[in-house]
From TrEMBL, chain A:
Belongs to the peptidase T1A family. Residues 267-276 have a biased composition (Low complexity). It comes from the Eukaryota. PANTHER family: PROTEASOME SUBUNIT ALPHA/BETA (PTHR11599). The lineage of its organism: Eukaryota, Viridiplantae, Streptophyta, Embryophyta, Tracheophyta. It is found in: Cytoplasm; Nucleus. Residues 241-276 are annotated as: Disordered. The proteasome is a multicatalytic proteinase complex which is characterized by its ability to cleave peptides with Arg, Phe, Tyr, Leu, and Glu adjacent to the leaving group at neutral or slightly basic pH. Component of the 20S core complex of the 26S proteasome. The 26S proteasome is composed of a core protease (CP), known as the 20S proteasome, capped at one or both ends by the 19S regulatory particle (RP/PA700). The 20S proteasome core is composed of 28 subunits that are arranged in four stacked rings, resulting in a barrel-shaped structure. The two end rings are each formed by seven alpha subunits, and the two central rings are each formed by seven beta subunits. The catalytic chamber with the active sites is on the inside of the barrel. This is Proteasome subunit alpha type. It comes from Eruca vesicaria subsp. sativa. The keyword Cytoplasm applies. InterPro entries: Ntn_hydrolases_N, Proteasome_alpha, Proteasome_alpha-type, Proteasome_alpha1, Proteasome_asu_N, Proteasome_sua/b. GO terms for cellular component: cytoplasm; nucleus; proteasome core complex, alpha-subunit complex. Pfam families: Proteasome, Proteasome_A_N.
UniProtKB/TrEMBL annotation, chain B:
Belongs to the peptidase T1B family. Component of the 20S core complex of the 26S proteasome. The 26S proteasome is composed of a core protease (CP), known as the 20S proteasome, capped at one or both ends by the 19S regulatory particle (RP/PA700). The 20S proteasome core is composed of 28 subunits that are arranged in four stacked rings, resulting in a barrel-shaped structure. The two end rings are each formed by seven alpha subunits, and the two central rings are each formed by seven beta subunits. The catalytic chamber with the active sites is on the inside of the barrel. This is Proteasome subunit beta. It holds the Pfam family Proteasome. PANTHER family: PROTEASOME SUBUNIT ALPHA/BETA. PROSITE patterns: PROTEASOME_BETA_1, PROTEASOME_BETA_2. Its main location: cytoplasm. Non-catalytic component of the proteasome. It is found in: Cytoplasm; Nucleus. The keyword Secreted does not apply. The keyword Transcription regulation does not apply.
Length: 276, 245
């Protein structure tokens, strides 16, 4: 996108009917590190890549609990994301207090979208530079929504936002039809595999990603590093064995779940040690 | 979600003119409501009287109304405040319906909303002078609760307001049990209402029974109970204490 004479104010239309400031805000979302969400009928999994400013610092928090039954993953200006998460928590808790009942996630995203829209129609404001993947429950089950800086929101079976999210989206597009009936464990595995796609070559470690789950009868919570690593182990080891066996010149074999005995013989020194 | 509170001209405690805007005493009042959970939902009974002090002024007041798809509200106390509450709930249900998203307010949500309203008004020294009974069924779960004018709120298997607390609840404590049939439930309520008719001077012999189940609300046509006044105790009531009544 190039600069032009209609992009200074959010309240200035271009002759082709575009609001460039809003589009620039959506660019900010694309620059943030990836966030992924997928849902089955009863569960929603949100996962993100942990990006740290430097090796010395800790990584930024990109997934927030809004309520026991709603979580949100963000990409873009994390400060804007934090502020919107606080707003969402406030809406959820106010509803809970007045009605002693969880706020249906579909209603929350509409409030959020309306809030974002205001910033696209006031000359003294700017759009929020953050995209939100909101996962939550309501009377009809689990839902996943994407809220955009433009004030639009869409419902998804699975989605990815942020940098290199296209790789994750391609992976999800191949598999999404089965997500509805997926078990909780399969959903988590698919989420982590989607995260791996965005890393594009970098080895997937549990320290590189954050995964959260919520579902019917399961309040929102983060998975700990151990659990994530165990899931990674189930498919990394498979990939490992295939690589090693191919190296031995053997034909493609059926992937083995537990430590590949045939592979161990090759003894590849450059690979991270796996627990048996 | 916000709700509108009537505008007053300031703090009713400190500002004298504000007094003219707040409830000081009730004027037209309804007497007891009695309600029980039964097999398919909730049964609620009330008479149709509106008393103006000691005068039985109005005899066709419906004190039970359906709220949304899943709830039934009964009120005793100031009738105009009950009508005000119905206006609030109307707005609440309207906004809920406008979402058109498959989610709807159940009896628990309505009960809690009313608790908030009643308690907030009490805190401003401008109460809605009612005791409300909220019953309903949603997704197979039966709910029955009560809110008083000072915001005291609770749920139970059977509730009653006003005199009903003293005359009907003891009967219900003895004779209520889970999974009452519709006929047994109505018989039980009629027994309570008959006692109230004999002993509560603001009760009239014209009552309605409302039922709410998963299918919805039905309010019966008004009817009256058979009464018997030839009990020995009624014959010479002052027999033990001449001069009393």
């Amino acid at each position: 996108m190039f600069r032009n004479q209609y992009d200074t104010d959010v309240t200035t239309w271009s002759p082709t009917g575009r609001l460039f400031q809003v589009e620039y805000a959506m660019e900010a979302v694309k620059q943030g590190s990836a966030a992924i969400g997928l849902r089955s009928r009863s569960h929603v999994v949100l996962a993100c890549v942990n990006k740290a400013q430097s090796e010395l610092s800790s990584h930024q928090k990109k997934i927030f609990k809004v309520d026991d039954h709603i979580g949100v993953a963000i990409a873009g200006l994390t400060a804007d994301g934090r502020v919107l998460s606080r707003y969402m928590r406030s809406e959820a808790i106010n509803h809970s207090f007045t009605y002693e009942s969880p706020l249906p996630v579909g209603r929350l995203v509409v409030h959020l979208a309306d809030k974002a829209q205001v910033c696209t129609q006031r000359s003294w404001k700017r759009p929020y530079g953050v995209g939100l993947l909101v996962g939550g429950l309501d009377e009809s089950g689990a839902h996943l929504y994407y809220n955009c800086p433009s004030g639009n929101y869409f419902e998804y079976q699975a989605f990815a936002i942020g940098s290199r999210s296209q790789a994750a989206k391609t992976y999800l597009e191949r598999r999404f039809e089965s997500f509805g009936d997926s078990s909780r464990e399969d959903l988590i595995k698919d989420a982590i595999l989607a995260v791996r796609e965005t890393l594009q070559g970098e080895t997937l470690k549990s320290s590189l990603c954050t995964v959260s789950v919520l579902g019917v009868g399961e309040p929102f919570h983060f998975l700990d590093q151990e659990t994530i690593q165990k899931v990674i182990d189930t498919f990394e080891k498979v990939a490992e064995d295939e690589e090693v066996e191919a190296g031995d010149g053997e034909a493609a074999v059926a992937p083995a779940e537990e430590g590949g005995d045939g592979g161990a013989g090759a003894g590849d020194q450059d690979v991270a040690p796996m627990e048996m | 979600m916000t709700f509108t509170i009537p505008i007053d001209n300031g703090d009713a405690v400190k500002n004298a003119e504000a007094d003219s805007q707040r409830t000081l005493y009730p004027y037209v009042t309804g007497t007891s409501i009695v309600a029980i959970k039964y097999k398919d939902g909730v049964l609620m009974a009330s008479d149709m009287g509106g008393s103006y002090g000691s005068t039985l002024r109005y005899k066709n007041i419906e004190r039970m109304k359906a709220i949304g798809k899943h709830s039934l509200l009964g009120a005793s106390g100031e009738i105009s405040d009950f009508q005000e509450i119905l206006r609030y709930l109307d707005e609440l249900v309207l906004n809920d319906n406008m979402w058109d998203d498959g989610n709807s307010l159940g009896p628990k949500e309505v009960h809690n909303y009313l608790t908030r309203v009643m308690y907030n008004r009490r805190n401003k020294f401008n109460p809605l002078w009612n005791t409300l009974v909220l019953g309903g069924v949603k997704n197979g779960e039966t709910y029955l609760g009560m809110v008083s004018m000072i915001g005291v709120s609770f749920e139970d298997n059977h509730v009653a307001t006003g005199f009903g607390n003293h005359l009907a609840r003891p009967i219900l404590r003895d004779e209520w049990h889970a999974d009452l049939s519709f006929e047994d439930g109505v018989k039980l309520l009629e027994k309570c209402m008959r006692v109230l008719l004999y002993r509560d001077r603001s009760a009239i012999n014209k009552l309605q029974i409302a039922k709410i189940t998963e299918e919805g609300v039905t309010v019966s046509q008004p009817y009256s109970l058979k009464t018997f006044w030839e009990f020995k105790a009624f014959h010479n009531p002052t027999a033990g204490a001449e001069g009393s009544w």
